[in-house]
Structure formats: structure tokens, C-alpha cells
């Protein structure tokens, strides 16, 4: 009954640790964010804006509309930018820029009734670690609800939905990045496998939806990422997710207010969103979406419970999860070992879906507090002093209960 006691108490090249850096997209691409009181724009309509004909034929590539988060992306001239800055409906304008995955490739192949399942010798060490207080366990213990009734979205490079590990529960639902209709890089399939694949996943019954915003090189632009987040939120409103939806963002860029606001809009819409802390070995406050307080930011640890040398840190980080040498699914019915905070974040998204399947639908704040309440405290080594980094290691609450019923 430990679950109930805790719940009641709660009211883009991937070969080395990635250093996110500002990379202008060029060609005059911008992200225009409007004030909450502004009307949502439509294609080719800027009637009444200062600048007259300068803005009459702006081609809006993406239109964003999630609660109070409104805006669009477009290619704009300097004169059009100047005209938009005079419009009282415009909150701010950002240059579009590059965003990359945060993984590192290793070149080698309402609480339910139910029971506890033991997956002996799980293929990824992260599963055993997630279900025990102590390191070194290889068995994954989990409740049989396993994220049932939830939807998990990966805003990434896409998902190879045909992989047998997904058992028909995965779907590639939207592409903002390229002409490819599936995962032509692999990162998104790996992330989805950590969240919910049959053998390598945390929440083995969640539905998996791929939203492709990054290309075959693991790179993309912020305007597409924002569009992907908005799509996931709106799609979840009509999808079959009675216990709730979660979003994973295993990607990063230099700090962007627009990307942070998009993540916050998902949270405000009732969707839990976890993001990778980044692989620069520096403070998360300098990167997005990891610097957004409403996003659940996840750092990476290794098999010895030390923070990895590449993981970002700081007071904006929420918890840690396994991120180094993680085995998971890969396109073409394959498997791959990757490292990075990209691998840590989906452990937590899987855990979020797992708790939603176990306890039922709840708001993102309550869900985040449950994850923190269950976490194992003060076991992570090598955290830099004086950085206000929380020493919370993600835990599903089952390992300490043995294999008895909950």
C-alpha cells in the first residue's frame, strides 16, 4: 500500500557529447509570438497591422494555437520585421535557429487492481535501476497496468512504427521536418523504445505517437519543434488517452523563449512534458527547452549512479534517470546502444505514463510531484557543489515492495 500512502500525502551530429550552440537558420526565417489576447492568425491575413501591404502576403509556414500560446513562423524581410514590431498584438519575435538531438551514438550493434510483474534480466540496465532503490539490479519490476490508457508523444526524428517491439501500439502521426514519412535517423525510435517498447520500455502498454521535427541528421529548426509540440497537445485532445498524455523532447538548442513558451503551453493544457537537460556539461539555464520551469527537466546518470560528465545540471533540473549506454529499439527491427540526456528523459516520460496508468489522469504538477516524491534521494555522485542541483533519482516505487501485490 505504499503507493496510496505517498499519493495521499501529495496535495545534431551524434558521435560525441553534443555542445548546443547558436546556429542561425538564415533566409530570414522568424518565429512571431503574439500576446494572449490576439486573434489566431490565418494564412495571408494580417489585416489592420501596421505596415499595410508589407504584411498582406506573409506566408506563414506554421500557425501556433495552444491556449494562450499563439503565433506563427514565416520568412520575413527586415522591413516586415520592423512593421511587426509596431504591432501591439506582437509579444516578441525570434530568429529561427537550429536544434539537435541530445544523444550520443555508440557504433555497436485512480489506482488499479493488478499485480507486480518481474522482467528478469531486462535488456537495458535502466529498467532494473528504475525499479530498485539500489544500483546493480538487472530485473525490472513493474505493476501490470504498465501505462495502459495513456498516450506518449515523441517530438523527435520520428518513430519506426513497424518495429515488432511496439506490438502495433506505435504510429508516426505527423512530419514537420522532411519528405521522409518515418524515422530516417533512429533517435526517435530509440527514445520511443525506452518509453514503451515490449522488452526495453518503462510503460509497456502506452500508445506511442511519433511527431517528426528533426531530419535524417538529427537536426532541425525551432519553428518545426514548436509546431510539433502544438500538434501533440492538440492531437491528444481527441486521441484515445483516458488516463492522460505525456510528451518527450530529447532535443536542445541555445535558450529560446518561444520554445520554452511552447513547452509551458503544453503544461498549461494539462499535458506532462519531460525534456532532456542537454549534453554540454553546463547549467541548464542556458538551453531550451530545459530552462523552462514548467517542463520536467531530466539529467543523465551512469551505472555507478554518478552524473555523466556530459549531463547538464542546475536548479532548473528536476531529477535524474539512467542515460548512459542504454539499449533500445532502432529502425529496421534492430537495436542500438546510445548515451545522453536524450535517453534519460524518456525513462521519466515512461515513468509518467506508468503512474498515469496506475493512478489515473491527473494534472502535470501533481504528476511531477509524485515522480519527485517517489524518487530516491541523495544517491547520485559527482554532482558539482554549489549548483543547487537536486539529488533525485527516478524510481517507480515497486522494487522495495518485493513481488507482492500493491
UniProtKB/TrEMBL annotation:
GO molecular function, one term: serine-type endopeptidase activity
Protein name in UniProt: Uncharacterized protein
CDD domains recorded: Peptidases_S8_PCSK9_ProteinaseK_like
GO cellular component: extracellular region
Organism: Venturia inaequalis (Apple scab fungus)
Alphabetized PROSITE patterns for the sequence: SUBTILASE, SUBTILASE_HIS, SUBTILASE_SER
Catalytic residues in the record: 156 (charge relay system), 187 (charge relay system), 342 (charge relay system)
Every Peptidase S8/S53 domain range: 155-372
Signal peptide range in chain numbering: 1-24
Source domain of life: Eukaryota
GO-annotated biological processes: proteolysis
SUPFAM superfamilies listed in its UniProt record: Protease propeptides/inhibitors, Subtilisin-like
Family assignment from sequence similarity: Belongs to the peptidase S8 family.
Domain Inhibitor I9: 57-101
Stored InterPro entries: PCSK9_ProteinaseK-like (IPR034193), Peptidase_S8/S53_dom (IPR000209), Peptidase_S8/S53_dom_sf (IPR036852), Peptidase_S8_His-AS (IPR022398), Peptidase_S8_Ser-AS (IPR023828), Peptidase_S8_subtilisin-like (IPR050131), Peptidase_S8_subtilisin-rel (IPR015500), S8pro/Inhibitor_I9 (IPR010259)
Keywords attached to this entry: Hydrolase, Protease, Serine protease, Signal
Amino acid at each position: 500500500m505504499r503507493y496510496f500512502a505517498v499519493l495521499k500525502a501529495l496535495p545534431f551530429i551524434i558521435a560525441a557529447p553534443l555542445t548546443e550552440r547558436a546556429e542561425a537558420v538564415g533566409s530570414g526565417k522568424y518565429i512571431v509570438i503574439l500576446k494572449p489576447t490576439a486573434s489566431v492568425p490565418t494564412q495571408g491575413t494580417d489585416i489592420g497591422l501596421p505596415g499595410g501591404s508589407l504584411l498582406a502576403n506573409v506566408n506563414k509556414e506554421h500557425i501556433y494555437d495552444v491556449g494562450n500560446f499563439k503565433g506563427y513562423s514565416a520568412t520575413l524581410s527586415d522591413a516586415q520585421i520592423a512593421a511587426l514590431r509596431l504591432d501591439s498584438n506582437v509579444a516578441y519575435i525570434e530568429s529561427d535557429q537550429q536544434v539537435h538531438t541530445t544523444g550520443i551514438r555508440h557504433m555497436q550493434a485512480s489506482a488499479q487492481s493488478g499485480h507486480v510483474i518481474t522482467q528478469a534480466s531486462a535488456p537495458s540496465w535502466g529498467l532494473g535501476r528504475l525499479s530498485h532503490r539500489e544500483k546493480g539490479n538487472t530485473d525490472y519490476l513493474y505493476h501490470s497496468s504498465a501505462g495502459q490508457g495513456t498516450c506518449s508523444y515523441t517530438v523527435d526524428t520520428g518513430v519506426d512504427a513497424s518495429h515488432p517491439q511496439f506490438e502495433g501500439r506505435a504510429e508516426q502521426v505527423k512530419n514537420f521536418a522532411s519528405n521522409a514519412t518515418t524515422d530516417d535517423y533512429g533517435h526517435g525510435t530509440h527514445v520511443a523504445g525506452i518509453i514503451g517498447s515490449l522488452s526495453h520500455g518503462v510503460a509497456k502498454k502506452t500508445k506511442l505517437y511519433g511527431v517528426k521535427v528533426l531530419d535524417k541528421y538529427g537536426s532541425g529548426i525551432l519553428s518545426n519543434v514548436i509546431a510539433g509540440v502544438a500538434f501533440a497537445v492538440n492531437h491528444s485532445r481527441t486521441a484515445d488517452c483516458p488516463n492522460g498524455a505525456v510528451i518527450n523532447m530529447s532535443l536542445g538548442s541555445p535558450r529560446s523563449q518561444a520554445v520554452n513558451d511552447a513547452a509551458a503551453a503544453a503544461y498549461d493544457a494539462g499535458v506532462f512534458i519531460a525534456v532532456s537537460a542537454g549534453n554540454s556539461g553546463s547549467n541548464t539555464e542556458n538551453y531550451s527547452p530545459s530552462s523552462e520551469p514548467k517542463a520536467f527537466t531530466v539529467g543523465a546518470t551512469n551505472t555507478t549512479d554518478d552524473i555523466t560528465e556530459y549531463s547538464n545540471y542546475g536548479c532548473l533540473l528536476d531529477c535524474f534517470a539512467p542515460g548512459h549506454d542504454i539499449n533500445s529499439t532502432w529502425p529496421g527491427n534492430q537495436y542500438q546502444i546510445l548515451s545522453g540526456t536524450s535517453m534519460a528523459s524518456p525513462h521519466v516520460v515512461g515513468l509518467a505514463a506508468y503512474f498515469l496508468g496506475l493512478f489515473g489522469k491527473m494534472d502535470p504538477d501533481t504528476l511531477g510531484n509524485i515522480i519527485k516524491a517517489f524518487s530516491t534521494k541523495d544517491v547520485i555522485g559527482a554532482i558539482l557543489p554549489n549548483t543547487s542541483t537536486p539529488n533525485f533519482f527516478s524510481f517507480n516505487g515497486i522494487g522495495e515492495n518485493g513481488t507482492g501485490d500493491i
